[in-house]
Design goal:
Elements (H helix, E strand, L loop, with lengths): L5 E5 L3 H13 L3 E5 L2 H11 L3 E4 L8 H8 L7 E5 L4 H9 L4 E4 L4 H16 L6 E4 L2 E4 L4 E4 L2 E3 L3 H12 L4 E3 H8 L8 H15 L9 E4 L3 E4 L2
């Protein structure tokens, strides 16, 4: 951790901004703050933060609209931190480009872990042909998956699904996003179809498919690869 990364906090609650400032500063991050959407958009453009923490309940512009405006040009991670906890709100945020979603009240340790994963993932080269997760390796060029150095036989669809999730390690991907990416728009409501393929993958790559450590379910929302 170089200590040069600036995190932008867009939240109208003073207490939340103070808590985040203390927590993040103690972990080597520089902090930029905004108390409303308009100020947040301006500071994002001026400061080029390595990550943005965004509240949805802002006083001037709805946080979802701020997210959409940011995603017109901002490519780095955005983590939503909000009291809104309905599946609909979470899915909308993730489908509109949020990397992660935590509800208030939150545990600072969990937030720090999510921040580290998001920043690390954003720095991984998209051209890296080999992904490695403990004893599991995924060769994106040769389409070969190995576990404990043994080749795991996957169908082309299973490989595409695993690769999509693994390339987005730590990020929640919604059911609709995954279905659209792998099978196309005609399948975005076929969540049961996706569950079947996830179950098949777990049997092939997890040490204990009943207690997965790689293919994790985010109930009612989608799946997260890894922690």
């Amino acid at each position: 951790m170089s200590g040069n990364e600036t995190i932008l906090i867009i939240d109208d609650e003073v207490q939340i901004r103070r808590l985040l400032e203390i927590t993040l500063s103690a972990n080597g991050y520089k902090i930029s703050e905004a108390s409303n959407g308009k100020e947040g958009l301006t500071k994002a453009a001026m400061n080029h933060p390595v990550l943005i923490i965004l509240d949805l309940g802002l006083p001037d512009i709805d946080g979802l609209d701020v997210l959409k405006k940011l995603r017109e040009w901002y490519q780095k991670p955005i983590i939503i931190l909000s009291v809104r906890n309905s599946e609909d709100d979470i899915v909308k945020a993730l489908d509109n480009g949020a990397n992660d979603y935590l509800t208030k009240p939150f545990r600072t340790g969990e937030l720090l872990a999510r921040i580290r994963v998001a920043i690390r993932q954003s720095m991984v080269s998209v051209d890296n042909p080999m992904l490695s997760f403990g004893t599991l390796t995924i060769d994106l060029t040769s389409y070969i998956v190995r576990k404990n150095n043994e080749i795991i036989k996957l169908t082309s669809t299973e490989f595409s699904l695993l690769a999509l999730l693994a390339k987005n390690e730590g990020r929640v991907l919604t059911h609709q996003f995954i279905l659209k990416e792998i099978w196309g728009m005609g399948y975005i409501e076929q969540t049961q179809y996706l569950r079947v393929f996830i179950a098949q993958l777990r049997k092939k790559i997890e040490d204990n498919p009943a207690k997965p450590k790689l293919l994790n379910t985010e109930s009612g929302i989608g799946y997260r690869f890894g922690s």
